[in-house]
Amino acid sequence: MADKTIYAMYDDDNVLKDAAQSLVDKGIHIKDCYSPFPIHGIDPIIGVTRTRLGIAAFMYGLMGTCLALIGMRYFMIVDWPMIIGGKPNWTLFHNLPAFVPVTFEFTVLCAAHGMAITYFIRNKTLPGMPAVNPDPRTTDDKFVLEIDTHENHGMSAEDIISAVKETPIVELSENTH
Amino acid sequence: MFKEAAIREPLILGEKSYHDITIDVVGPIENKAPRAWYILLAISGLIAAWGVGCILYLIGTGVGVWGLNKTVGWAWDITNFVWWVGIGHAGTLISAVLLLFRQRWRMAINRSAEAMTIFAVMMAALFPGIHMGRIWLAYWVFPLPNAFGSLWVNFNSPLLWDVFAISTYFSVSLVFWYIGLIPDFATIRDRMVKPKAKKIYGILSFGWSGKAKHWTRFEEVSLILAGLATPLVFSVHSIVSMDFATSVIPGWHTTIFPPYFVSGAVFSGFAMVQTLMLIMRKGMKLENYVTVKHVEYMNIVIIVTGSIVGVAYLTELFISWYSGVEYEAYAFINRATGKYWWSYWAMMTCNVISPQLFWVKKWRRNLTFTFFMSIVINIGMWFERFVIIVTSLHEDYIPSSWSMFYPTAMDIGIFIGTIGIFFTLFLLFARFFPVLALNELKSILKISGESYKVKE
Q1: Residues of chain A contacting B231 with CB distance shorter than 8 Å
Q2: In sequence order, what are the beta bridge partners of A143?
Q3: Cβ neighbours of residue B179 under 8 Å, at least 6 residues apart?
Q4: CA atoms within 13 Å, Cβ hemisphere of A124
Q5: Closest by alpha carbon to A89, among A103, A105, A102, A78?
Q6: Which letter, b or e, does each residue of B224-244 get, where b requires 16 or more Cβ atoms within 10 Å of its Cβ?
Q7: What are phi and psi of A147, to 5 degrees?
């Protein structure tokens, strides 16, 4: 049997959330959901896990802090010591107060850009990437649930479609591939 | 579902659906631009071209074309720099700090305020660049390995901290702005009919499709960027103020500078947001989204920050007397009664007295009055920087070297020119970019929309 992807369209975020819940209760696995804005509370229903981007940002920030301190120690203390404005520079520790601003800025720079780049790569959203939303209206005012028959072994496509039709859909389309 | 108290004024007026929000924001991009837009673009474009001409003349001839002299070595250039950076503080404050405080009214103004921030910081960064004289060597501000032996930039200097602060602030604000724009570009891409426009918005939208996981990441990234940008906003103008505060010039050498500069920056930034938003809501018919309540909220921020600035001025005056340092005392007496008395009193009137008028509810909800005040405040804030910089320098320790600063045509041309460039960029933004954060507005429609509130 050819695999089918079923797209169920709704015109309200809360309706979609209730529909997703009822489908999941029937044991249907929902592959994804397309919406024009974040629907709060849909993630646990369709099994989207929490993102780890926050941890990544922390790591990038830590890297920035270390790089800034290593760099400034090398430039100002090791390679060519400069006493300017009477600021002591025998060790990194003595010179540290003057290094706080740049350390902070560089930490933020690395954390923000590192996280942003990771975000784009993980999302696979990069300049020139093709859009994969099933219907152009999902970026306007429609909400779509995507169900793959290939991920629902226990059920036939007809069973899934009839279950979907019980929810208040506005449109139903399917794709065979 | 979360509901907002019914007595709170709605943030989206009228009977709106999700689709209506799309139409209202994307409509101006799809339709032909009104004639007023072309007229405004032509005017600001001409001023911008004049500014670019002056800048090229300056670079070709040298910094001597400015009115600077041996005593007043810093004047309009740094005044304009600080003024523009200050204006650039509102955008990130609105989008980052208000996001952390969960203020929903930010959603109607954050996109254009952030755009304004980015353009203002670009204008600001221009001034130190052209002040170097040899702008083609501007990359020397970065610690790059070089052929001059162990010649590194000085990390003890606030001027170098500024390089890092401004470049971090600019690039992080840009990323924050763009990440928010991507889903809205996707909305435009999916509505565009002309293949060329569809293609361009397709590239700009990075192939955004609005998957559940992407939205989860989007919200997390927005929140973390807001958390990172919040201390960044405060650090940037603190560091700008240290350019002055760490020197030993009477009138500059004060520890109050960082908080005083930051609140002044937010004060002028919000004034500029008011100026732009009041024109934009009228011109693009966004009255249902940028409501009188939004204007009032911003005016309240203006009262708070304006009052902090007022207190800072008075504290400075008090300390100059209380410290017993005669040079410090003279710097302030000279500001108020010396040859530049008019600039001091212009600053006092515009920044201390005028924001207090917003205590009157009727006035802070009056759009014409707000528009007028927003311009007064920005003039006042320009004078603040002028007063700090020029009046502290022009009468130094040796009376024989006392002098005045007279701006040349190049000083004026470059300053006015940056205003032209700024407005040109903003007009282009208003024409081709989604000026309201579509996805965010849609997410608050059911919470703060007028029609939904009535139904309860």
Answers
A1: 104, 108
A2: A10
A3: A116, A119, B218, B221, B222, B225
A4: 8
A5: A78
A6: bbbbbbbebbbbbbbbbbbbb
A7: -125, 130
User: CA of A156 to nearest chain B CA: how many angstroms apart?
Assistant: 25
Its sign, for the CA torsion A58, A62, A63, A64, is positive
What's the order of all strands across the beta sheet hosting A32-34? A32-34, A143-148, A4-10, A171-176
- CA dihedral for B222, B223, B229, B233, sign (positive or negative): positive
Q: How many angstroms away from the CA of B184 is the closest CA of chain A?
A: 8
CA–CA distances in Å: residue B274 to residues B230, B291, B296? 21, 12, 10
Are β-strands A32-34 and A143-148 bridged in parallel, bridged antiparallel, or unpaired? antiparallel
Inter-chain residue contact B152 with A79, CB threshold 8 Å: yes
* pLDDT tens digits along B128-145: 889 888 888 888 888 888
Residues of chain B contacting residue A108, judged by C-beta atoms under 8 Å apart: 168, 172, 228-229, 231-232
User: Which residues 3-32 of A are in CB contact (within 8 Å) with B?
Assistant: 14, 32
What phi-psi label fits residue A86: left (phi over 0), alpha (psi between -120 and 50 degrees) or beta? left
Angle between helices B257-283 and B367-386 (to 10 degrees): 140
Question: Could you read off the pLDDT of B91-115 as tens digits, one per residue?
Answer: 888 888 888 888 888 888 888 899 9
pLDDT along chain B (456 residues), means of 10: 72 82 84 87 95 93 89 89 90 84 85 91 91 86 78 87 92 92 90 87 88 89 90 91 89 89 90 91 85 90 92 91 89 90 91 90 91 92 91 88 90 93 93 88 81 66
Is A124 within 8 Å of B221 when comparing Cβ atoms? no
* Alpha-carbon distance B447 to nearest alpha carbon in chain A (angstroms): 13
For A:122-141, CB contacts with B below 8 A are 122-133, 136-141
Strands of chain A, DSSP E: 4-10, 32-34, 143-148, 171-176
Chain B: residue nearest A52 by CA? B217
A interface test, pick of B209, B444, B445 with most A CB neighbours within 10 Å = B209
B-proximal residues of A, 81-110, CB under 8 Å: 82, 84-85, 87, 89, 95, 98-99, 101-102, 104-106, 108-109
Asked if A169 reaches chain B (Cβ–Cβ under 8 Å), the answer is no
CA nearest to B376, candidates B316, B302, B308: B302
B302 within 8 A of B380, measured Cβ to Cβ: no
Distance CA B40, CA B431 (A): 12
What is the value of pTM for the model shown? 0.91
Write the ipTM. 0.90
DSSP label of B229: H
Cβ–Cβ contact A116 with B under 8 A:
yes
